[in-house]
Amino acid sequence: MKHLLPLLFLFTxxxxxxxxxxxxxxxxxxxxxxxLKIKGKSYSMEKTKFILTFNEDLTYSLDSKLTKIANDYFFxxxxxxxxxxxxxxxxxxxxxxxRIKEKYRDKIPLYPSIKNDELxxxxxxxxxxxxxxxxxxxxxxx
Length: 142
Prior knowledge:
By secondary structure, this protein is mainly beta. 8% of the residues lie in helices and 49% in strands. The protein is built from one helix and nine strands. It has one helix at residues 4-15, and strands at residues 29-38, 41-44, 50-54, 59-66, 82-94, 97-102, 107-115, 118-124, 130-137. The model is unreliable at 3-18 (pLDDT under 50).
């Protein structure tokens, strides 16, 4: 038993590492949507306000005027459907997943990819529809 305590202590110290995943820092900032793809159909977001901000304190906000697509698609599948400001918390769960939580809603898993200043978020809805949102990093001086 005397030899087991130092081993347990060492195991505890080693296992308490920093959970820093691939997108932990690079996702922070303001992102403006430029395209939305649902069921293989693409929608330009150039004229639709859809600004997603990930903050360093693991909160997010979204300013959305996403009403135009309502006539073309069943909105239940889109995480941020409708017009308004959405706020909540997010967590970088792994190198392949970000989970967001809006007040009064279930956690939503998003699968990110970042290349240069372009963020792609893939979402699989409850009705098994793949939704891809492509955003660009908003320049800091805007």
